[in-house]
Amino acid sequence: MIGLFDETVVSLFVSIVGILVVATIVAVLLGLRHQGSQSATLKNLNQRIGAWWIMAIGLAVTLLIGETAVVVLFLVLSFLALREFLTIAPTHRSDHKTLVWLVYIIPLINYWFLWEHWYGAFAVLIPVYAFLFLPIRNALVGDTDNFLQRAALIQWALMVCVYAISHVPAIMQLPVMMDLGRQEAEGAPLGSGGAEGALLMLFLVVVVQLSDVFQYVWGKTLGKHPVAPKVSPNKTWEGLIGGVLTATAIGAGLWWITPFTWWQAALLALVSCLMGFFGGLVMSSIKRDRGVKDFGATIAGHGGIMDRLDSLSFAAPVFFHLVRFFFTI
Amino acid sequence: MNKPSGLLKRGLSKTIIAAAGANLIAQGDDGSPPHFPTQAIYYANHSSHLDFLMLWAIMPAELQPRVRPIAAADYWGAGIRRSIARGIFNAHLVQRYKDRPYTRADEKTTVRTDSGSSPKQGQLTGMTKILDEGDSLIIFPEGTRGPADQVATFHAGLYRLAKHAPHIPVVPVTLKNLGRVLPKGELIPVPHLSTVVVHHPIYLQDDEPQEIFLNRARSILAEELKTEDAVEGDAT
After folding, report:
1. B172 - beta bridge partners?
2. Membrane spanning segments where (chain A) (predicted)?
3. Minimal-distance CA residue of chain B relative to A149
4. Cβ–Cβ < 8 Å for A111, A167
C-alpha cells in the first residue's frame, strides 16, 4: 500500500481511466465524422473530457501521496472557490478586513482541525465561532449599510466554499469512527482512515460527478420539461430522473468498495445525487441573480471551480452525517 | 542597477496575473487577443496599488523593457518601494506636489478638475522625453486611487502627452475588480478574479479641445466599468 492506495483503489482508478479512454475515443470519432465543422458542443465536450483527465489524475496523485496531500488539495479548492464566490458576490468595500479573516484564517483553522482529526472542533468552528465572529468584526468597522445582507453573504460564502467542501475529505475518517467509535476516533493518527476512507470518499465523488454527467447526457438527448425554467432551462425532469437513476444504479454497483450492502449504497447514492442536483440548482440561482453564466474559467469547458463542486458541496455534508449517524458507533 | 533577468520577469508577470486571477480580454467582438502597439500611451482607471503591476504584467515580454509606468514619487520614491519600482518595473517617478511631501490629507482634499490645474509642467517634461526616446508610458489620469467601480475626472496630463505626440496611439485599459482585491487604505489583498480590457487605440483629433478629448478618453473606461454590472459593484 502506497499512500492511501490499495488494490481496490487501483482497480477503481483503472475503471475510471477506462471510462475516460472510451470517452476520449468517442470524442475523437465524433470529431472525425464532423471534421472541418468543429461545433461548439463538440469543442466543449473535448475540453470537458480533458479537464476530467486532469481532475482524475490530480485526485489519484494526492491519494498516492497521502492524507495530508488530500487535505491540502481541498484547502486550495476552498480558497479558489471563495475567490470565485467573492468575485460575483456584492461585497462592500468596508467588508475588506472581514474578508481577510474569511479567506486566509478561518479556512486554515478549519482544515487544520480536519487534519488533526479533531472532529468536535471541526464541526463547530464555522457554524458557531466563525458565524458569530465575522459579524462582530464587520460591526467593529462601523458601516451599517445593508449590514444584514453583507453579514449573511459572508457567512454563506464560508458555509458553501469551506465548510461544505471540507466534508469531502472529512469522509476519509468515517471508517475509523466505524471501527473504534466516535470518541476513540478523535485525534486518530494521520492516514488512519487508510484505503477504506479513500474509497468511501471516492464513492461519493464518483457517484455525484457521474450524476452530473448523466444529467447532462440525458438532458441533452431527451430533455424537454424544465424543472425550474426561471433558474435554468438546462435542468430538465428527463435529465434529472435519468441522471439520478443512472448514478444511483452505478452507486449500487459500487457497493463492493464501501462498507455498505448494495441497497444501502443505492440509498446513499440516491440521496447524494438529489442533494447534488439541488446544489446545482441553488448555485444556478445565484449565478442567474448576479447575471453571470459561470463562476469563472478555471477549468476549461466546465467554468469555475464552484461550477464543478456545486453538487459535491451540497452532497458531501449530508452523506457524511447520514453515514456517521447510521453506521458509526 | 542590477536588473533581474527576462526569465525572472516573465515568471513575475505570470505570478501577478495568476494571483489576481486576471482574465485578459480585448475590446471588440472578434475575440482576438489584445493588441499592444510597439509604442503607445497606455492609460487606465486607478483603484489599487496593484494597478500598475497588473498593467506591466499583461504587456508582452518584448515590450516590457520599453514601457515606463509613471508612479508617484511620494509613495514609490523611497526605500524598498523605490528599488522595486525602479529596478524591476523601470518606473518613472514623478512628484505629485512640487514643494512639499505628499500626505494622507492630500488624498482626501484633492480637488479633481477637468482641466489645467495639474500636473505641474515639470512632471510632463520627463514624460515627453520618454516618448521622444521611443518608449511607452503607463499613466493613471485620475491622479489618485478611487473606488473600484468609478472613474474620477481626468487630469490634463493625458491630453498634453497626446498633443505632444499625436501620432502615438493612446490605448485605454479598463481594470476591473483590482480595487476590490486591494482597496485604498488596506494592506492585505483579498483574492478576486479580475478582468483587464485592452481597448482599441484612440488618437487626439486635430483641434480637439482638451475637455472633449479627456471626456472621450474617460468615458471609454467608465462605460466598460458599467457593463457586466454583475461582476462589479457594491451591495445594491
Report:
1. B43
2. 12-32, 52-77, 98-115, 121-140, 152-178, 198-218, 239-257, 263-283
3. B235
4. no
ipTM surpassing 0.85: no
Domain assignment of residue B1, yes or no: no
Structurally, chain A folds into a number of domains equal to 1
Q: What number of residues does chain B have? A: 236
Q: Is the peptide bond before A233 cis (omega within 30 degrees of 0)?
A: no
B24 neighbors B196 (Cβ within 8 angstroms):
yes
* Nearest CA distance, A92 vs chain B (angstrom): 5
Question: For residue B190, which residues of chain A lie inside 8 Å, CB to CB?
Answer: 86, 96, 99-100, 103
Only one residue has cell 482574465, namely B23
Residues 6+ apart with CB under 8 A from A290: A88, A89, A90, B230, B231
* pLDDT tens column, B182-226: 888 888 888 888 888 888 889 999 888 999 999 999 999 998 888
Spatial contact of A118 and A187, defined as CB atoms under 8 Å apart:
yes
Q: What is the rounded distance in angstroms from the CA atom of residue A127 to the CA atom of residue A215?
A: 32
| Burial tier of B4 (Cβ tally within 10 Å: 0-12, 13-18, 19+) | exposed
Q: Structurally, how many domains does chain B consist of?
A: 1
What is the span of the domain harbouring residue B140? 6-27+36-198+210-226
